[in-house]
Design goal:
about 80 residues; alpha+beta; two-stranded parallel ribbon
């Protein structure tokens, strides 16, 4: 991300990032990729804080950004 952000700044190109919110690699996430496996235990409040922290880090380290685009959780996940 760092190299891409630096190259975009150098060339005057607007930068944006995609951030998937449905990831299965963190134990605090709600589900696995694609929503095929629900976790028996999850902490949505903690995951929300994790996502906010990640977003702030990306914006501070690599901004300014034209866009920050997020996936959303599958509405079938309860």
């Amino acid at each position: 991300m760092k190299e891409l952000a630096e190259a975009c700044r150098k060339e005057g190109i607007a930068l944006g990032f995609y951030h998937s919110t449905v990831i299965g690699t963190t134990p605090i996430s709600v589900t696995s990729p694609g929503g095929t496996v629900k976790r028996e235990t999850s902490n949505l409040n903690r995951y929300t804080e994790y996502l906010k922290d990640q977003s702030v880090e990306i914006i501070k380290k690599y901004g300014p950004l034209l866009v920050m685009w997020y996936d959303v959780l599958n509405n079938s996940i309860q």
